[in-house]
Amino acid sequence: MSDHDFEVAENEEKRRRHDVMAHVHAFGQAAPEAAGIIHWGATSCYVTDNADLIFLRDGFDILRPKLAGVIQKLADFAQNHKDLACLGYTHGQPAQLTTMGKRACLWIQDLLMDLRNLERARSDLRFRGVKGTVGTQASFLQIFDGDHAKVEQLDEIVTRKAGFDSAFIISSQTYSRKIDVDVGHALGSLGGTCQRIGGDIRHLAMFKELEEPFEKDQIGSSAMAYKRNPMRSERLCSLGRQLVNLAHNTEDTFAAQWLERSLDDSAVRRSSLPEMFLIADALMILLNNICSGLVVYPAVLQRRINEELPFMATENLIMAMVDTGGSRQDAHEHIRVLSHRAGDQVKTHGKDNDLIERVKKDPFFEPILDIIPKLLDPKTFIGRAPQQVEKFTGAGGEVQKALQDYQDQLASAQTTELRV
User: Fold this and answer.
1) Are 122 and 60 in contact (CB under 8 A)?
2) What are phi and psi of 378, to 5 degrees?
């Protein structure tokens, strides 16, 4: 075979409007003595569907180590920032404190689910094998003069040669397009995770708490020279959204199949299946690059904590007053009045939150003046976040166990470089 034979196949396909038969004729010209038995007993899907299953399997084998590498990078980030306090947000509003490392673990946990989904989808793949035009193996039974054992033996040999442990016993002309649905769900779910992580990074960049890598000569805007746009994370969200949407194609295609098969699945699958894997691969390249250079700004984190911590600490202040023999209800009322006054200073006049200063000046709180600094220590508001990060990402934790089969690839993993 040579490149010229592919030109022959291209001309044959233009003439015959059938991709497989175009190659059958091209191969027949290259091997005239075998021309009469090429494709004997087979149907087009014997070639294309079996090839697709090989592509799907190999695609997963490319993606899984890359995803494992991203998880490892985020786990290292989480370990390095497991006790760095920061604001947590619910409903888009400041809530209680968490840590930067604990937040990264939220991303890791979702990515671990994606890794499990890819592994499951890969392990569920079976070969279509030698099944004939509608899956009954009738043509091969005829070739072997009714010898069922030889038909099964041929099916097993072809399956092993393709690198699969087993083949589907039941198929129509095609393997069930439900397989594509499972593949699409695994990849689409990964796309959703990437979109979610990218969105979080973009929000944190908006608050100036965290930034994706920004290179020395990088330009954020052609007009606004000062800007540091999170273009990597924006691209992550864009491609993630596209991957989620492409996954829906597999459901529509599966549902639209008629009886033993209809050809309306062909064109869309030739586009959507490779595109899903290519996008997933691009997402892993992006995430690897982003997670290799995340920049945290502790001073900004502290400033934002200082803006909100006085309100968060009010329950601690009330509890401390009760410990000294004060009335819980009286303490609550004093805090309520002072909090509203401090809030007015922030919202109406744009000033700093001066609640603690108001508390210190109120004679009612004199019994706890000495311990107020301790009650305001951010580390007393992060709960078990550092311990959770350690248990999750540390030695013997869930992350380490999930990545155990990828240690060889992780040992040689490198930071990916973006060209655009």
Assistant:
1) yes
2) -55, -30
* CB environment 112-140: b (16+ within 10 A), e (fewer): bebbebbbebbeebbbbbbbbbebebebb
User: Distance between CA atoms of 100 and 78, rounded to whole angstroms?
Assistant: 7
Tokens of 48: 């294309």
In whole angstroms, what is the distance from residue 175 CA to residue 86 CA? 51
CB environment 21-54: b (16+ within 10 A), e (fewer): bbbbbbbbebeeeeeeeebebbbbbbebbbebbe
91 is known as an active-site residue: yes
Please indicate whether residue 301 or residue 267 has the higher confidence score (pLDDT): 301
Tokens 């549902």, residue?
A: 255
Q: Which of 196, 135, 119 is nearest to 169 (CA)?
A: 135
Residues 53-60, mean pLDDT to the nearest whole number: 96
Q: Quick one: three-class SS letters along 196-248? A: HHHHHHHHHHHCCCEECCCCCCCCCCCCCCCCCCCHHHHHHHHHHHHHHHHHH
Q: For CA atoms 28, 33, 39, 41, give the dihedral sign.
A: positive
For residue range 100-114, what is the model confidence (pLDDT) as tens digits? 999 999 999 999 999
Active-site option among 91, 222, 349, 412: 91
- Asked if 87 and 95 count as a contact pair (C-beta separation under 8 A), the reply is yes
Nearest CA to 49 out of 152, 151, 126 is that of 126
- Would you call 412 helix, strand, or coil by DSSP? coil
CA distance 147 to 264: 35
Q: What is the DSSP letter of 325?
A: T
> Closest Cα partner for 397 from 78, 81, 34, 53?
78
Q: Is 66 helix (H, G, I), strand (E, B) or coil?
A: helix
Residue whose C-alpha is closest to residue 298's, from 91, 87, 131, 117: 87
Question: What pLDDT does 86 receive?
Answer: 94
pTM for the predicted model, two decimal places: 0.87
pLDDT of residue 220: 65
Phi first, then psi: give them for residue 95, nearest 5 degrees.
Answer: -115, -130
Note if 189 is an active site residue.
no
In whole angstroms, give the CA distance from residue 31 to residue 78. 60
Catalytic residue among 123, 148, 166, 221: 221
